[in-house]
Structures are given as C-alpha cells and as structure tokens.
Write a structure and sequence with these properties.
The structure holds two protein chains of two kinds. Chain A is mainly alpha-helical. Chain A has a single domain, classed as Serine Threonine Protein Phosphatase 5, Tetratricopeptide repeat, CATH 1.25.40.390. The radius of gyration of chain A is 25 Å and the shape is globular. Chain B is mainly β. In chain B, the strands form 17 sheets. Chain B has a 22-stranded antiparallel beta barrel. A five-stranded mixed beta sheet of chain B has the order 10-16-17-13-14. The radius of gyration of chain B is 32 Å and the shape is globular. Chain B starts with a helix and ends with a strand. The chains are: A mainly alpha, B mainly beta. At the A-B interface, helix 1, helix 2, helix 3, helix 5 and strand 2 of A face strand 19, strand 29, strand 33, strand 34 and strand 35 of B.
Amino acid sequence: MKKLALFLIILIGVTVSCTKDFEDYNTDTKRATEVPGNFVFANAIKALGDQEASTNVNLNVWKLFAQYWTETTYTDESNYDIVNRNIASLLFRTYYRDILSDLKEARRLIESEVVAGEAATVAKENRLHIITIVENYCYHSLVDMFGDIPYSEALDIDNISPKYDDAFEVYKSLLTSTKTATDALNAAHGSFDEGDLYLHGDVAMWKKFGNTFIVRMAINLADVDNALAKSYIEGAYAGGFEFGEDVHLAYPGGTNSNPLFQDLVQSGRNDFVPANTIVDIMNNLNDPRRDDYFEINGDAYTGGLYGYSNPFSQFSHIADEIQEETYPMVIMDYTELAFYLAEAAARGYSVGGSAEDHYKNGIKSSILHWGGTEQDFNDYYAQAAVTYAAGSWKEKIGTQAWLAYYVRGFVGYTSWRRLDFPTLNIPEAPETPDGQVPKRFTYPINEQTLNAANYTAAAAAIGGDEMNTKLFWDKN
Amino acid sequence: MRKFTLFIAFLMFLGMQVFAQEKTINGTVTGKDDGAAIPGVQIIVKGTTIGTTTDMQGKYRLTVPSNAQVLVFRFVGMKTLEVAIGAQTVINAELESEVMSIEGVVVTALGISREKKSLGYATQQVSGDDVNRVKGDNFINSLSGKVSGVQVKANGNMGGSTNVVIRGASSITGNNQALFVVDGVPLNNDNTNNTGQLTGRNGYDYGNAAADINPNDIESINVLKGAAATALYGSRAANGVVIITTKKGTKQAPGKKALGVNFSSNITTGMYDKSTFPKYQQNYGAGYGASFYSGEAGMEGFEYYADIDGDGVTDFNVPTYEDASMGQKFDPNIMVYQYDAFYPESPNYMKKTPWVAGADGPAYLLQNTWAYTNSIDITGGGENSTFRLSYTNFDQTGLMPNSSLKRNSFLFNGSQNLTKDLTVSASANYISTEGKGRNSTGYSDNIMSSFRQWMQMNVDYKQQHDLFFASDKNITWNPVAYDNLAPAYWDNPYWVRYKNYETDKRDRIIGYLQADWKATDYLTFMGRWSIDTYTELQEERKAIGSGAGEFGVGRPDVTSGYSRFDRTFTETNFDFMARFYKNIAKDLNLTAVLGTNIRRNHIDQVFASTDGGLIVPYLYSLGNSVNPNRAPEERYNKVGVNGVYGSVSFGYKDFLFLDGTIRRDQSSTLPEDNNTYIYPAVSGSFIFSNLLESSAIQLGKLRLGYAQVGNDAPWGSIKDVYTQNTSFSGTALFSLPNTKNNSDLKPERTNSMEAGLEMQFLNKRLGFDLAFYKENIVDQIMPVAVSFATGYSGKYVNAGEMENKGVELMVYGTPVMSKDFRWDITLNWAQNKNTVVSLAEGVENLQLAALQGGVTINARKGEPYGTIQGTDYLYDSVSGKRIVLANGYYARTTTSDKILGNVNPDWTGGLLNKFTYKNWAFSFLVDVQQGGSIFSLDLYYGMATGLYEETDFINDNGVPVRDPIRYVNDDPEQGYAANSGGLILDGVLADGTVNTRRVAGDDYRVFGYSRNPNSRFVYDASYVKLREVVLTYSLPKTLLDKTFIRGASLSLVGSNLWIISKELPHADPEASQSSGNFQGWQSGVMPTTRNIGFTLNLNF
C-alpha cells in the first residue's frame, strides 16, 4: 500500500506541475493579437478596390450586367444565372465580412489610440470620419445591389439574426452620416500616415470624395424624394471633385496586381470579350475611346453578341492597357460627378451650371482620362447624336454616362437602372422571371438558411426577392 | 494474463531449430467430455510450422524432427493442449472444452490485455495476416469489409488517404477518423491535404499518416468501436480505436535460445478497371455545336475566320480552344487543320488531316501498376529477452506515368528482464516514405478531370505522347488559337506528368521505452514514454510553359511556380500506470487500474511558394520567383492534455463481470478556468451459458455498457488573432479572422450506450456477435455558420447534438470440416443511423463544404450528417412529372438548398469465405455498401461537353440526337420534320400539358450542367465488390524436410478484381479526392485498379 500511496503522490505531482505552460500552448505565435488600426483600414479598402475591379464570375458580374463585356463559351452569368455560383453570398461575404467588419475593427482600434496634441487629435478624428465615409460607401453599394439590407443590427456577432432595414431609411441615414463626417473633416491636419492606400491621408481629397459620394447617393433619390435629393446635391456638389480628379487604388503590380490582370491574364483564360451593346453604340458614335477600351479586330471593332456564345478569336478584345497588372481601379471620379450634376441640372437643381455644361464636362473628362485630346472631344461632341438635347436628357446623359463608366460595371449598371438608357440587349436565355435585364440581385441563399425570419420579412417588404423587383428608388 | 499473451505470441512464432533426425508420432484425439474422436484437430510441433490434422476417426500421424520438444493440439472451442514428446511415439490427447477462457485475450484501451469474455463492449479482432495479404500502399484498405461497423473508403489515388469511420460520424466539423494505436503508442493519422484540395480545387492527395504502418509488422488488430471501450483513452478516441499489436520475439525455456528468419516477397501488378473509366462517344469532335461557329453547310462545327496557310483563302480549323466534344461529326473525307498543324515540331505542321476520332483515346495514358514488397525479419528470444528486427521495402508505380511511391520501414523491438520482477522493453520504428508524381485531384489542373469532363474526342493521346517526347515541349491539343499556342485550359498530359510532378517525403520515428515492475503478486507498475515524430516535405512544381492554373499560397492563377510545404509533427506520451489484481473473496476478484497520461502535441508547418511564376526554367526554389513571395502560411500549434484515470473490474465466478472507469482530462485548448472535464464509463458482461450448462450452447454472453466521453476544442479556438495578408506597397494588411473564436467554450460530451449478445453453437462451429448502440454527442464545439451580415462567416459555439444509432452483426461459421477440407464463413454487417438532432439555436443547417457545381455538403437539422444539397427539378403537383419550361428545358428550383442525397450508406457488409484443402487455402471477400449518395461533377460537366456515350444516341425519330432540329419545309410553323434531330424532354409544362418542344441535342445545354439541376447528377453510391481473392499453397513439410527451410508458401492474391454491381456510371463510387468530412462528391477521380499479386513466404 505504501507503494500505491507513493504512486499516487507522483501521479498528482506530475499532472499538476504540467499545466503551467498551458496558457502559452494556446497562444498563436504566428499571428498578431494586437495591430494598429491603420493596417486594418488598409486591408478593408484594398478589399473594396479588389471587389470593384474584379471580373471574377463568382464575385463581380456587373461588367456583364452593364453589358460592357460578355462571356465567350460559358454564358451563364451573362444570362443572369447568379444562383449556380452563389454570387450573392459572396457579395455579402466581401462587403460585410471582408470590408465592413475590418472597418469597424479599424474604428475600434483607432478610437482606443491615445494621442496627444491638436495635430494628432484632429488626425485621429479625421481617420474616424474617413472610416465612416468608406463604411457608408459600402452600405450604399449593398442597398443598390439588394434593396433592404441588414444595417442597424449588422456587424454584431452576438446577434446572429440581424434584421433588414428599409432601404430608403438606410439611404437617409447614410446621407446624414456622410454629410456629418465630410463636414467634420479638417484639412488643416492630416489623417492616415500609412494605411490609406487610396489617398495617402490627403484629407482635402477625402472631403471631396465625401461630397461627391453624397451627390452619387442623392441623385438616386431624385425620383423618390426630389426635395431631399435636391437639398443634398445642392449642398454638396461644390465640395466635390474638380475636373480631372479621382480617387483610385493604384496597384503596384506583382503580388498586388489589379484583379483584372489576375482574371484576364494570369488565369490564361479567354472568358470575356467586349459586348456588342457597347461596341455597336461606340461604333455608331465614332467614339474616340474605342481604341482605349478595346483592341481592334482586324479593321473593325466587333463585340460579342451579349449573352450568346462568342468564340474569343472572332471578336475585339478588352484593351491591353486595362489588363495590365498596375491598371489603377477608379473608385469615384470627377466624370461621374459631372454626369450626376448634368442630371441634377436637367432636373432643375441649382448646381452651378447648366445640364449641358456638366454633360460636356463629363464627356470631356472621360475622353481626356482615357488618353484622348480636346480635339477628340470637340469632334465627338459635334455629332448630333452626342450633342446635348434637353428634350432627351435621359437618353443623352444615360448613354454618355454609361459609356464613360466603362470597366466600372456597377456604376454603369446603376446608371442604366436610374436613367434606363442606353437600351440593353436581351441575352439568349435570361434566367430572370420576366426575361428582362435584372433590376436587382436576389438575396444570398445563406440568408435564407441562416437568417430566415429576417430574410422573409425583407423579401416581402421589397415586393419579392426576385431579380425583376425594382429598387425603391427605381421608379421609372 | 501477460503470460498467456506471451504464450499466444509464442505460438505464432517460429524458433529456429536444427533438424538432424526424425521420428514419427501417431495417436488419437478425443474429447474429454464425451470421449468421442475429434476430426480436424490441428497438431503442430511447437515453435515450427510442422504439423498435420486428425482424420475423421480423430487419428493422426506426424513425422517430427528428433529434437522436437512439444506437440500442440488445437481445435476450435477446445482448450489448446501441449504435450511434451520425450521418447513417446504414440501420443493420445484428450481435449477439454474451452469454457473458462472461451474467447481468449484481447488488447484493450491503453494496451491493457483483457479476457474478451469480461468485456462489456464490442471489440473485433483481425489478424495481421488478414491485412498483409494484399500488398498495397495503405494497409488500412485491407480492413474493408472485415470489421462490422468500420467503414473504410479507399479513394483510388496513388498513396491516397483512406477514410476510416467507425460507427458513423460523431463530430460535426471535427475529425471523424478512427484513432490508431500501435503497441500503446497513439499514431498520428493526419491528412495534410490543404482545404483547397479537400474541397475539390486542384492539388494532390498526400495520404493519411497511419498508412506508414508496415502491415508485415502487424501481429493482430483489435478494433474498439464504442465509447465504453475507448473511454480510458479519453477524448481523442471518441471515433473508435484501431489497436495494433506488432509481432515480437518470444521467450525461450531456460538455457534455450531461438532465432527465426522470415522472408516474404511480393510482386503485384494492376490495371485499371474499365467499368470505372468513361465510355466515350466516338462520333463527334471538338466544339460546342453547329450554331457556335461561322462555318458553312456541312462544316458548321469548325472555326472559319482566318487564312491559316496564307493562300489568301479562309480556312476551316478545329476550334482547339474548346475543351468539349459537342462539335462537328467525324467524317474521314473532311480534311481540316487540327492542333497538330500549328506546331512547327509536329509532323503534320501546316497539313490538313482527316476529321476522325483519336485512334488512341485517353486510356492510352494509363499504365499498368507494379508494386514490389520485400520483407525480412529476424525474431529471437532467450530466457530473459526477446527481440524482433524487421525491414520492409515497398516500391510502387501508379496508373499515371512517372509516378512512384517508395517506403522503407525498419522496426526493432525487444525486451529484457533486468531482474525477476523488472522488465524493460523498447521499440524503434523508422519509416521513410517518398512519393513522386502523385495524381492530381479535384477540378482543375487534373488530367482525370480533363478525361472525365473536358476533352476532344478527335485527340489521339499516342500523338500527344509522341509530340511531347519528340519536342520536350508543352504541345497541347488545347491551344488558344492557331496563332496563339498558349494552352487554353489543358496542357499536354505528358508534359504535366513529366514536368509538373510533385515530390514528397516523410521521415518518421515511432518508438517507446517501457518498464514493467511486478512489485508484488497483486501489484504491478508500468511506465512508458513514447514518441511519434516526423518531418514531411511536399514540393509542387509547375514548369514554365504550362497553362495557367491555381497554384501556391493564396491560389492565384500562374503559369509556373514552385511551392513547398514543410511540416514537423511530434507527439509524446508519458504513461504511468499501476495495476492491482486480487481475489478479494471466494469467487470474486478485483482488478484495479490507476494511471496518468501526459500528452504533448506539437505541429510546426510552413507553406510557401513563388508568386507570379518562375524566372529560370526548371529551377524549383522559393527564390526563383517573379514577384516577391506571398506571405507564407505558418502554423505553430502546441496542445497539451493531462489525464488521470482509474478503473475497477470485478469478476464473479467467471460469469459476471463489472467494469467501471473514470477519467479526468485537462486540456490546453480549453479556456484556462474551465479546462478540466471528468467522464465515467460502466460496462458489464454476463455469461449466461455458464449457468445453463447446455451442450447446445457453447457460449452465451450478454453485455451492456454506458460511457461518457469529454472532448476538448480544436487548437486556437479561444483567443482572437488577426489574419495577415501580403503587404501592399509596404503597408501591412491585417484583417479580422473569418471565424469568431469563443473564450467561453466548454468541453463537448459524448454519451453512449451499447448492448450486445454473443453466442456460439454446434461445438462452436457457428457463432454470432450482435451489438446495438446509441451515441449522442452534445455541446459540440463547432464554428457554426452565421449570416455574413454579422461580419463573420462563422462563430465557435458549444451547440448541437448528433446521434448515431446502429446495429452490428458478425456471424461466423464452419459449414464443412473434415480431415482435409474446411470451409469457414464470416459475415460482417452494420447499419448506422445518424441524425443531426440539433445545431446552434436558430440554425437549421451547417454547411460543411461548398463544392464546385453549386452543391454543398451539410449537417442539416433532423437529417443524417452529410446531406448533399443543390438544385432540383420542379415537379407538377398533379402528374408528379417534371416540369418543362416553354423553352423545352427542365425547370429548376431557384435555390440550392434542396436535399438531394446523403453520403451515409444504409448499411455496409462483408462476406468472407475461406476454404482449406490439404496444403491449399482459398478465400474471397465480397464487400458491400448499400445506399449513400454521390454527386458526380464529372457527369455534370462531361455530359454537357458531350464526352459520354449517353450523349450520342438515336432519337425518337430514328436519327442521331445530335442532328439539327428540322422542320417541315424548313418552316417552324409547320412543325417538326420526321427526320428532326434533338429530343423532347419527358415532362409537362407548367399548365400540366405534356411537353412537345424539341431541344437541340448538339448543344451543351441539354445533357449537362447548364439546363439540368444538380439532382440529375446525384447517384446511388451502392456497390458490391469482389474485394479480395487469395489462393495459397503451402509447401508440404516432406518437401522441405531435407532443406534448411522450415516453411514456404506461395500465394496468388487478387484485390478489387471485380465490381459486381454499382449504380454510378463511369466511375467507382468509392473514389474521391481525399479522406475527411467532405465525401459524396467526385471530380476527376482515378479509375480503380484491379490488382493481381504473387507472394512467396519463406521461414528459416
């Protein structure tokens, strides 16, 4: 029995003494537990740039929906099949999990920074305002994709069933919050010293971004709440981008190449050709940007029939420049603002110039951006089909804005939804219930299974979770 | 009991003796109870293979060497009897019924040998020979069909991982593989395949680490199935344990020493099973149908846009870009530019060639496999020591060219009695495995997925072979265009095999040091330190000149690259155990065990790769990278578990046994303030036949067990850390992780109950073992999927419950037993019903994997684990028929959450028949899986691309289905012409009227993924296979008497010879990309290999 007692003592001794280092065992020595908020912000806006640039059929089909490009052999997405690849789920994943969640975390980390002195204090405030603007930019994109979205209850891991908020209410909240943050930006001091991959901490430019963004959001409301749209646009336009200005993500290439390079070049695949929709319109207008948008096919620019099979070798290709690894992804630019202001003026808002002035600026800005000359613009604008005409302002502005937004599929697609121009083609076998071009994305299947009650309520609130349900602002 | 074990071991081994002279012994064997003669009794000279059996009158005659000491008499159901020979020449033996030690001794948890009769839970034993007959790259495959309730799924990859699940999946997102324990040393069985590979992207199956075990070293395998059996091992054994006992040397009588040498040599060759390879249509070549290209009448399937030969006239050429065979109908009179006209290295450069099917199809690539297994071992023993030294060399080539797997295994074990009461033993096993050119798996960059999904029937693979070897270049059938020879999707398969091969190497040491001290008659102590450690290196290559594909860290598309995965694994266990044995009263004995187990696991791994391609051709180093390398994926885990356990066993009059165990674990993976958990188990057995005293029943045993097992969390699921992405222009990028960790985790728990009945009749010529069990795993620790709107994709929770209920039956019998002939049958059958009882609150479904094709593998509440979900047909509520849209194609559900099947089989079974006739032995094993479902991505795409014979048939009009749709007078208004091609899908329109619309048969939409729901490609995974056939001839002793050889046998071994029936066309339903939780989905799987081997065994 003595032996047994001794054994017991040893046994207890051994097991107790061996647990001291358990805490260390559970520490991940290869991953950071504390990081500066700036780097988390950087990750978020990199992810946002990547998402907007991508033409991966799992993530970004807007270049197809806008009918800038079409597919060659596998035409499912150009025929609006978004279920097969769960594209909506991946969009939720990208915006909420990969961008908004990191923005929220960046905010938390930056808020917890202890800073001293006015410059640092203002810079900290500026950083938080910039985060707000980018967050709002993302929510705005989500609303314009889906309609009602999780907003007020989003990004809370302790609430795994976030409710969906009314899209119009979200818009109003975004406008208020963006205006507050933009107005509060203090250009007298800096913001991010590192982490701001778009503007390298240039607060004045972020202010312009904020104001341009307010115009972008407000113009969508023109048909649903004209007074609200008018007041925001008139209050913000003057603080927006000036001619030639933009905010973009400059890809350094290599490991951080433009996703288009990865999708179009590195993949070795030939999945996309320019769609006949845009090529035909540009051919008719003798558009000087054609050689910047496309590669010539023999002696002509030929687009693939939208939504039909198109042998790659028989059509014009996407311009080589766009496929370069360092091709910068424009997030928002003056061209866009100019077209919004043209539209605002046409709607009777007071935006410091006539509809035609802004319209001309938009076209000129785009042509110059793509490497054209003033002469190119003058020749182009002189054509009757291009010259502004108040009687057909929707068609003129709609078509030219859409042409100018090339590569930025979602902006182009949204412009089409608001202005209904140009006329888009119907693909071979559209998967939409009405056989027409979709008006929105259906909600992720994940939401049907993981957040069912809220999903069902949202689907009912917007008038059915279908691709042909129009967004609240899409009245015409 | 230890002695008994040694004795059994002794019988298995051969001590070397010198045979100078001989004598003949004869006699009669009778039963002690009734005095009747017993035919078929086995008589051998102890320590040799010299032996005979009694005839129908129970008589025998045996010539023995003059130095033979002891005769051993063995008969089923009788106690084995040993008789010293001495000077006798007539030895009559009386055998006693083996009531007292009916089932022998088995090794249970923690290496404790127990009498099987005393166990209140199910175990099933397999002999080492049973897993060593078929020589393959993974001995685990040999368990298939041999143990009831053990589902073994070999996937067909060379050196690939085998899925071993006992009594169904118990963990929703964790590991469900059985634990392997060799001589008390838990063996790592990790599958290091990365998530991309597991979920069907590209990659290689590097196998499961337990495959390192050398089957030639295995003495016996005992499978512990339920929690009651494994409770002492703790949480890690929750999925059942496969306990392996290796061969050892045997002790000899005082003053004696013995040495035995065994040599075994095997050569096995295999060829692919045609029923598991596609049967192709042979009438149409490259392209996507007539409407696709601008060709003219009769040439619609060709491209027509360029002047290839420069004569000023536009030429027709094959659409080489398209990896499909929905194109132009073959016609030897059509001369056309094909891919081989565009490469200057080709003999057909700038030549038109006839439009015909490739003379040598894809099967040309497949080679017969060859495997050589050579083993030698030396065993020995003296009065105080034993040893065994073995070496096995395994060398295999696979179905794919330039593939090989080599394994060298050295094992030494020995024991020495230091004093009368103190024995030390040690074992060291070194295993080196080298793989080269494993076959790719998954969707992309996998030759088999080209063969099964994306291919042109006009391609001649012998020509691909010849062009590659003549040019050393990637001359592929799939260039982008005549003027752009970059590979569109697929490389020349020979380029892939000879340039883009992987290599891998694992060096492993498994060993232990053990001391056993017999302190008193009733108290023994054991201390053991054991280690399992290996380093592994997996190198993948993509040569400059290859087509683009996902590769390396972050899986970007690149056209060349190099990646390496370095992993070091170490597990150490320190066990200290005291055992107490005493008769505490008349007829009542007590065994008690008290022990501790200190386990430490350590994983250190790095995955790094070049980025953006290689600079210098064929230089495979991380430095040879176009872009700076992406941030490597590093992982450094340490896990510690300290366990204390105790057990008490009471035995009353050898017919009533009661066991109780309790274990307390403290795990480092749980939150510090709540990292301890205690779990008990009780089991008992009642041998009622001892009370019945019926001569009809030799054994009747009831058993009952209840056990609870706790389980800890996966490493790194408590504290949050940031994910770091590759820096952007010098700015670091950090992101929140995708899964929210949980600092409040508590241990998960398994509650299990089992009951069993074992019986033997007819003088033990018939017996069965029946087990029922129910197991509930609650508070599962799992990353439950949450709405992305929470900012995460998952969240670690303690939630959910899974249940397994099942029946296992083993029936064995000896229908015929005579002097020369014996027939044994063993039947294993098991049914497991798994139910996901609940998930986290409000969660109805947990997606385990989202796989290509839009199907998902899920744990869905109320359903068995592993539901396959996707899109389905829509059915008319009145007629029940499929609904067809106005366009003539089937309507599909708009959501992908329809349950299409489940990966779990309804039941599995194995039927083994063994026949022995004199020196001949013949056995065959039929292995059955009934039910279970599998989604075939191969058919999902391959039917669309028109590869399979099912896409080329004569339609209802008697014309080829791929003929164009024709109308009366070419006017659609007048209806279809009588000779119209295409087909009318069987179904009704939304209004209930029968569909009459014809759809094109020469269009990729009709048969494949594009216009059919996922459910079209879900198949029944049932099979019946002739798994194993063995014919053995043992050379008669009379032939060997004059030689130094003591035993010799020759065997002819066949494995996977015949799939007797299956539902899945063109592939083996067992084939998959890897072991693990993502089953039920196939893409580019290997065909099954039919193997025939020849083995020579020699004992000296």
